Amino acid sequence: xxxxxxxxxxxxxxxxxxxxxxxxxxxxxxxxxxxxxxxxxxxxxxxxxxxxxxxxxxxxxxxxxxxxxxxxxxxxxxxxxxxxxxxxxxxxxxxxxxxxxxxxxxxxxxxxxxxxxxxxxxxxxxxxxxxxxxxxxxxxxxxxxxxxxxxxxxxxxxxxxxxxxxxxxxxxxxxxxxxxxxxxxxxxxxxxxxxxxxxxxxxxxxxxxxxxxxxxxxxxxxxxxxxxxxxxxxxxxxxxxxxxxxxxxxxxxxxxxxxxxxxxxxxxxxxxxxxxx
Length: 277
Ligand SMILES: C[S@@+](CC[C@H](N)C(=O)[O-])C[C@H]1O[C@@H](n2cnc3c(N)ncnc32)[C@H](O)[C@@H]1O
Hints:
The protein is α/β, with parallel strands linked by helices. The protein is 45% helix and 16% strand.
């Protein structure tokens, strides 16, 4: 489990972990008040069922490599707020951005299943998902990672050097849309594309990828955070700007006749998209 190593425990940022925290708070309130024992028992069972899921998924998913554990640990002890206030990062980054064990192993499995040789990652942060996917690439495979922040790109590259798979990763430091257009102009294409950068630009990434043939004919697009903490199905007035952007992205993908998609409730939601026409 990568979310609890290091200096600080990551705050809940998935619909399920937010639900667990909410249920635990409700149970605490119920215990402090004069609640009938049947209601308390029922609530306790609900908390047990919900709180046991994520640790169980972690326990029965293949462990991450030692290089990934080290990367996650290094990410969790970094003082991201200070890096931002000191002007070292161009935006406020946070350890919760790192996808982690379950999602990393899921992506790695997709690379094995699709036999991808060329991967594009849009939004790399400290490189956890990039390295997880690179571990599944053949020795002549390549992953291009798009990252806008030079500090975190360098942080990731230092971690890649500690892994025998790091040499498969090439980092492009620039706004992702610029990199997508540059790659399209060079007629490059990818078997697997992982989208995980600016939520407000997801629609543009998706449309650029399809319109510019950046995806190979049998290629797979994986999109992260498509549940956005549950905001996409909560009442619209409870959505942040990112929640609204993802709700709109999901509607646009669902209405696009060029693709078929499935939204998996893994972590904060991963949508798999393939081109059909
Ligand atoms: C959620 S994090 C990526 C997490 C990473 N994929 C992982 O699984 O550990 C998003 C990253 O996208 C980067 N980003 C945000 N907007 C971007 C843009 N327009 N172009 C490139 N990178 C961007 C951020 O700097 C951040 O590092």
